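retry 2 of 3: previous attempt timed out while embedding magnesium ion. Reduced batch size to 1 and resubmitted. Inputs unchanged:
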Amino acid sequence: TRKSRPQRLLKAVEGKATLGDPQSVITAIDHFCRHKEWAMNVGDEKGSILDSLVIELSPVNVLELGTYCGYSTVRIARLLPPGARFITLEFNPDYAAVARQVIGWAGLEDKVQLVEGASGDWIPRLREHFGVQMFDLVFLDHWKDQYLPDTKQLEECGLIQKGTVLLADNVICPGTPDYLKYVRNSPHYDSRYYRSHLEYTKVEDGLEKSVFLGF
Ligand SMILES: O=C(NC/C=C/[C@H]1O[C@@H](n2ccc(=O)cc2)[C@H](O)[C@@H]1O)c1cc([N+](=O)[O-])cc(O)c1O
Ligand SMILES: [Mg+2]
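retry 2 succeeded.
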């Protein structure tokens, strides 16, 4: 059967990137998505904003919702301090299989725990299963209608505490209106919008960074 787009993206990584070199993996995926086939990676423009926030935050405990092919996983993992813990949740086993190979090609498999399943099922189990107390950074890039319920569940489970930073992709395109309204109107979050473009296009999109101020 014909290969899927994630499998074709992986072939592009294997053909172009240098094993163990995260930047070459990022460059290979961006080239593939810009010149061959668009794919819903956060991309190089929003990715640079993501990079600067990860560097500034130097987070110890990171959660990513929506691994997809592992592009943002590699962007984040390559910048984490030694000893940091990075959990990324992926629902689709085929995407997860590609992401494991992309992460492996970048040589970052020891920095990332890719967990397969639905965020709603896993969030309540992260504390007892992985011994994580709270997250310093949560990168939201999965189903857009899941951003808000998952944020509320993370709050209820105590995994978001004072100082936790939520970084949400696609708040303009495709858009996450209910999530945006919540973080921008809540007295418990300090929220700001980083204007950018939808990956590999000229369409407006951006990242919303929301710092939890405590209850
Ligand atoms: O729809 C988008 N993203 C949905 C991503 C979903 C990913 O999250 C996983 N997941 C993981 C855990 C879950 O619980 C549920 C899903 C899914 O299996 C998929 O791998 C999107 C769309 C556009 N676009 O221009 O159309 C641009 C973007 O940047 C996007 O992120
Ligand atoms: Mg996205």
